[in-house]
Amino acid sequence: MHLARHVDPDTLIQDIHDHPSKAHKHHAQTKSASSTVTPYSTRYASQQEISKFKIPQQGASAEAVHQMLKDELDLDGRPNLNLASFVGTYMEREAEQLMVENLSKNMADADEYPAMMAMHARCVSILANLWGAQK
Fold first, then answer.
1. Which of 31, 50, 113, 129 could make an S-S bridge to 40, C-beta 3.0–4.6 Å?
2. d(Cα 104, Cα 102) in Å, to the nearest integer?
3. Are 34 and 43 in contact (CB under 8 A)?
4. Number of C-alpha atoms within 13 angstroms, CB side, residue 80?
């Protein structure tokens, strides 16, 4: 399956193997992997290549995938430095902690989490009041 008509992940991987001089190489050695021709099989502690376009047949370590995605997302701008929009991105540490502590709760299962659903309704009410929404 291709992500796009102009991008074929199998061709990209084959090109890296055929022309290693064109590939981005890391010569670092990690505790569980040695250097090869792809950047996602060296410093990411993976013993196999990790494709950016499909899930590996044998899976991949959570640590390696986390680092690969984190590095890619680091290329995006920093929300707290974004002066081009009027959207506030600051959040108190306690609010972030509450979100993380409750990530495992299924918002679609209202019967299982009644306290969270009541709080959700109160938040909607608070926002409606802030925006002057009529009942």
1. 50
2. 5
3. no
4. 3
Evaluated on CA atoms 122, 127, 128, 130, the torsion sign reads positive
Helices (H), the chain: 9-18, 62-73, 93-101, 114-130
pLDDT tens-digit series, residues 45-90? 566 677 788 888 888 888 888 888 888 888 887 777 777 777 777 7
pTM for the predicted model, two decimal places: 0.45
Mean pLDDT taken over the chain: 76
Distance of alpha carbon 83 from alpha carbon 71, whole angstroms: 23
User: How far is Cα 1 from Cα 13, in angstroms, rounded to an integer?
Assistant: 14
**What's the CA gap between 64 and 69, in Å, rounded?**
9
